[in-house]
Each structure stands twice: as structure tokens, then as C-alpha cells.
Amino acid sequence: MSFTADEIASQPALWQRAIELLPEVRSVLPPAGADVGIVGCGTSLYMARAAAHLREGRGLGRTDAFAASETPLGRHYDVLVAISRSGTTSEVASLLRHRTADRSVLLTAVPDGPVAAVADDVVALPFADERSVVQTRFATTALTLLRAHAGDPGDAAVADARQALSVPLPVDPAAVTQWTFVGRGWTAGLAEEAALKLREAAQAWTESYPALEYRHGPISVSGPGTVLWSFGPLDPSIAAEARAVGATVVDLPLDPLASLVVAQRTAVQLALARGLDPDTPRNLSRSVVLSGEALAGLT
Questions:
Q1: Domain edge (last residue) among 157, 173, 208
Q2: How far is it, in rounded angstroms, from Cα 116 to Cα 114?
């Protein structure tokens, strides 16, 4: 079994640990009413987008999400939350040095790295660290913590995640030529992450969109052999249109974060079917650490 598969299977227990950790770290996370920015790169960016939509949607205050390299330096926040599994991501460290907020908080699996050195507060999640290059459990554990902080107790998600580890995959991934993932609200970030997982681990042709954007172009690549996978209930008319052109619709009756677990499993299965190692995807490393001219572009 791959490291990635093992790490996927550990998620329900780690999400429960994150929920139980909340009382210890609540005081350093953004309070209600604060203007907040949440930043990350890659998978962490998509978790940031999901968390930002959840927080603002619950009426807890304006919350923006950006790729660390694209955060407007002229925009000031009460709290800037950064997500970095490795704690070494150059773009995140550079942003925190710019002091675009009164206070910065880092969520990381490695609390003694260079990003932690420039953060005001650190929420350490070392129990969710990973050996695989492909992120799964750290990202979802960080999001579970932020989701709980936004008022979702998370019990249903944990229970559904346990179920997600054993349900049959909704499609044979080896028979699929193209994947479109969609979501609405906070789950649009999960759609982006699912697309990234299959792209990273299995070199699959994947796309992601807000669900109602599917009609505005993406449906043109749907047909026999393609999948439309929704995180959260899919509008029946969209499902009908996708099926009418021959696409397979996946709309699992699970918490959206648990549906992401099924997508992660699908990525591993597809990688193995293609003779790929899901732990070490092509051209990728565990962390992006820049130097020289590349680092100069962050100033």
C-alpha cells in the first residue's frame, strides 16, 4: 500500500483530533468580526478558499482567500491566516514578512520551520504530517479545524469520512477520459482540490468550476467516458443535462469533505491503474522553496 493510501485512511481520526484541539487554539484563531485573509499555495490555497467562504458565510466577518503570491500587499487585515504543510513555502514566508495584517497565524505540520519564524502565532498539526508528496490528510485536517472554528461541530463529517473509506468507488477511474469537479459556496474549493489530486497523482485530465458555471462552457467537453462530480447536492437540471450528453454524474450522499476522501481514493486507484507511483508525482516535490531570481519575484 502507498503512503498516500495510508494517509487517506487516517483522516477520520485526525479530523476528530483537530476538533478536540480547537479549545486549545481558539484564542489565536481569528475572532468573530475580524477582517481576515487566508492564504496558501496549491492544496493549501484550495483549503483557504473553502475556509474563507465558510467563515464569511457564517457572518463571522469579511474573509478573503488568495494564493500567497497574489495577495494584494496594499490590503490590510486584522488577522492573516497562512496554511503551509511543510512550513517552508517561500511565497508564504515572503508574504508574512510584508506585515499585511496586525497579526499572522500559521497552520502547519512543521512548527519550527522558516515560515513559523516570521509568524506571530503558530497552530501546530504535526500529527497530520505526511510522507507522500501528494497532500491529503494535512490539508483536510487544517480545514476541519477552521470549519469547527466557524461553528460546524464536524461530527457528521467524521462519521461520513469513515464511510467514505469503504464505499465502492462511484466509477471505474481507468475507464474515464476526463473529470469535471464542481461545487457551490465553500465546496467549490473542494472541487478545485479534487481536480488537483487526480492531476497530481494520476496525470488525469481534470477541470473544476463553480457548479452553475458548468453550462457556461465546461459542458462542451462532457460526453461518454467523462465524469461530472459534485461536492454537495447537484442541481437536478445540471445533472440531467450532463447525463443527456453521456457523462456520468457523481453526487455522493456524504458530507462534501468526505466526498473529497472518495476522490482521493479514486486518484490513488487511477495512478496504480496507469502504473504510476501516487506518492511521488512527476515533477513535484514536498515543498516549493525558491532562491535567487525566483525569490526576487516575491518582493
A1: 157
A2: 5
* Domain housing 60: 3-157
Distance CA 201, CA 232 (A): 24
* The one-letter amino acid at 178: Q
Q: Is residue 140 classed as helix, strand or coil in its secondary structure?
A: helix
Angle (CA) 86 12 67, round 5°? 35
Tell me whether residue 289 is in a domain: no
How far, in Å, CA of 82 to CA of 96, rounded? 8
Q: What is the pLDDT of residues 216-225, one digit of tens each?
A: 999 999 999 9
CATH of the domain at 194: 3.40.50.10490
- Determine the Cα–Cα distance for residues 214 and 244; give it in Å rounded to an integer: 14
Residues 8 and 117 in one domain: yes
pTM over 0.90: yes
The CA-atom distances, in angstroms, between 290 and each of 56, 72, 99, 107, 112 are 32, 20, 20, 20, 18
